[in-house]
Amino acid sequence: MNAEAAKPATPGPLAPGHATPAGTRRKSRPRLDLRRLGRAALMGSSSARDRLPDAIGHVVEAHRAHHPDADLEPLRRAYLLAESSHRGQMRKSGEPYITHPLAVTLILAELGAETTTLTASLLHDTVEDTDVTLDQVGKEFGEEVRYLVDGVTKLEKVDYGAAAEPETFRKMLVATGNDVRVMSIKLADRLHNMRTLGVMRPAKQERIAKVTRDVLIPLAERLGVQALKTELEDLVFAILHPEEYKRTRELIVRNAAREDDPLADVAADVRKVLREADIPAEVLIRPRHFVSVHRVSRKRGPLRGADFGRLLVLVNEDADCYAVLGELHTCMTPVVSEFKDFIAVPKFNLYQSLHTAVAGEDGQVVEVLIRTHQMHKVAEAGVVALGNPYAAPPEEQSAGDGERVDPTRPGWLSRLLEWQQAASDPDTFWSTLREDLAQDREITVFRPDGGTLGLPEGATCVDAAYAQYGEDAHACIGARVNGRLATLSTVLKDGDTVQLLMDQDAASAPSREWLDHATTPAARIAIQRWLAAHPAPEDGTSVTDARTPADDIEAARPPEPDAPRALQPSGAEDTDSGRPAAAQVLVDRDGATVRLAGCCTPVPPDEVTGFAVRGGAVTVHRTECPAVARMRSAGRTEVGVRWGEDAECRVTLVAESFVRPHLLADLTEAMATEGAEIVSATVEPPDRQQVRHTYTVQLPDAARLPSLMRAMRNVAGVYDVSRAQPQAPGV
């Protein structure tokens, strides 16, 4: 990779971001002597073919620390090929070019990358910068290494000019999605180049730093490679904000020179608490890196000693994490508002840890991270720590079209790959990519089946629909959030449970208004693509808005001339008061006129009772009607009533639904299919995309009522159908 001279961009003795044993001062992390490595490379290896060259000693040592049983022969052969191929090539700093792939490979080895990744890393520039071909790499090292080298080589064609960026990073996403190790090598390559960017022109330094900030750092965050992400952040910070970087560095240096260290004091207290509780644990002080210190200072103002770092507690088992948490909250003063459980609900980038905070005796608040050793490895190295994603049987490694599919691919990366394919305009893709990657805070929402969806903070039900169903979300008509009905514009919070309500009509379509509520690229691009394929009518109205609910009401309104008159059964009266005509009711009172109460509209086979009212009439109520209790307490005479054999009835039903075109027509069709005759229909004005329909219908048989209500509920957009409830006290 066109690289970039040596001269570290980050000056100073501090290497922030690395945990140190509690009670010790931070020390500078030893950097490789690149000139010494270069001399070793030029001198070549030992004549003994089985001896490892001295130049890769650091790589081998780091690799064996993570993989003690690793076969080192591929590394030896890869180094020899890379060294001979790059021999005579120099970096702009004057160092042999081989020092660059060596440094990149060492970065990955320290993260715990497996042998195949390290082999490809040593060779990652050979195909681009030398006469070595991919076929040679494949023949010598196997298809796995060939694939990785090819993927990284494709990313080498990067012209960081504005016109080239969109298509370049589109290719980068594809390469990353097929094997995340490609991006791991790319990130390590960028880190070393950023470390050695000092001899570049300031304008070029700034341009490379901005691309690193806008794309590569967010990708490192999402891949969980925190060790690379934090150092890249500091290097970019030093280039783009040199004055603020200098002030932050001075703050860190002054704090490091202090004799008292509140973090060390609290760490000693924590160690004592855990020792007395017989919980094996390692307590470390984890200094904040430069950017983190800068952010904290802007947020909190003047910093105290505890603000320059956090405590890291490492244990052996998951259960020990919660045991440590319990001891800290019992024996020390916890700051409960700082507690977060990322073990039960991991972050989108695989990160797991318990976060809490305790107050020291001097009132300083110390943040504490609790995790297992394995969690810590993944927290630092992310997908790099997962090893070879293709260790599974070959049949599990390819999609239906034969394309490789990385089984460790995070869900967010799969979503990015989907919408980058849908975004035909490179500029739209580029702006959307940067916008999406800038959303570095995610929430987790739960589906009713227990599954989860990772969404950016501020996401709505529209975003959840497209995250779960893809383009099938065009048929989404609403949602229930934590069991309560919600519109698609509802903003979701971390931990919400979301049930998405889908229309079964294949013609269902999104509204242009959805774009006002969609925040994720997947949702916005899918909606825009549908709208582009279905242009609005010439009058400017949306395809889905051209027909309004009011139009449906007119189309479905019952004929006016002769309102249907219910069949008058014996013993009942059809009054002009608007009360429903009664089904046949037998009353234990001779000559009494029977009326069905309009408040509860009883129908067979409801349990009913009657009350004598003025004029000798008997009003029939359902026994659970609230009016029954009031009439009994008022001393009204209760009359025994029962249903006759004639089961014809009139009943009032209320349908609650989301607004959509043709809804009323679909409802009336469903009722007609069930043999119901509509006596009257009322549709209230929509409120927050929800609408209430009230129908009084005549049924030839009361036994059809449950079937009618089911048919109405099955209409797309309808989420509830119920019998009419009393609107006011009394009869």
Describe the structure concisely for a colleague.
The protein has 25 helices and 22 strands.
What topology does this entry show?
Blueprint: E1 20-21, H1 34-43, H2 57-66, H3 73-86, H4 99-111, H5 115-122, H6 126-129, H7 134-141, H8 143-155, H9 165-178, H10 180-195, H11 202-222, H12 226-240, H13 242-256, H14 262-276, E2 282-287, H15 290-300, E3 309-315, H16 318-331, E4 333-334, E5 340-341, E6 354-359, E7 365-372, H17 373-381, H18 411-422, H19 426-438, E8 442-446, E9 452-456, H20 461-469, E10 476-481, E11 484-486, E12 498-502, H21 521-533, H22 549-556, E13 585-587, E14 593-596, E15 608-612, E16 617-622, H23 626-633, E17 638-639, E18 641-643, E19 649-658, H24 663-673, E20 677-683, E21 690-699, H25 705-713, E22 718-723
Parallel strand pairs: 3-7, 14-16
Antiparallel strand pairs: 1-2, 2-3, 4-6, 5-6, 6-7, 8-9, 10-11, 10-12, 13-18, 15-16, 15-17, 19-21, 19-22, 20-21
Helix pairs in contact: 2-4, 3-5, 4-5, 4-10, 5-8, 7-8, 8-9, 8-10, 9-10, 9-18, 9-19, 10-11, 10-12, 11-12, 11-19, 12-13, 13-15, 18-21, 20-21, 22-24
